Amino acid sequence: MSSEEKPKLKVIAIKNGTVIDHIAPNKALQVLKILNLPETDGKMTLAMNISSKYGSKDLVKIENRELDSKELDKISLIAPKATINIIRDYKVVYKEKVRIMDELESTVKCTNPKCISNNKDEPINSKFSVVNKDPITLRCHYCERLIESEDIEKQFKF
Q: 137 forms bridges with which residues in the sheet?
């Protein structure tokens, strides 16, 4: 290797599963919590603060699992610039940036303890409209409390 060549990070390819790329630095652990990982029977790769042409990023690879829409909605709140890659037989068969939907249901909890969505005796799922996408601000459908990105992130901290 010449003095001008930079060593490259090599992350082992997965045969089938999901790669979540372009996660903001230091957010991968929150993504793992959203996905209830690590699971005892699943294999995953986690890389944090790795260099990219856009600065630094985190990366999560999950073998033999494709994410559902609820998981993608939650990931979009923590890592709004992430890219989801679905891998089958070592090939990317689907690639898309996460999208923050205009309305979210059962993704996060309202921070108002008196909100009806937090009442265990009521069979109501939380529901929010997205007021702002950068930074993320949500409005509770029931009590109209505004929830800022910091409050959302607290719900997914280890």
A: 132, 148
Q: Which of these, 87, 70, 112, 73, lies nearest to 16 by C-alpha position?
A: 87
pTM of the entire predicted model: 0.84
Q: Check if the beta carbon of residue 157 is closer than 8 Å to that of residue 120.
A: no
Per-residue pLDDT of 1-43, as tens digits, reads 455 666 665 678 899 999 999 999 999 999 999 888 877 567 8
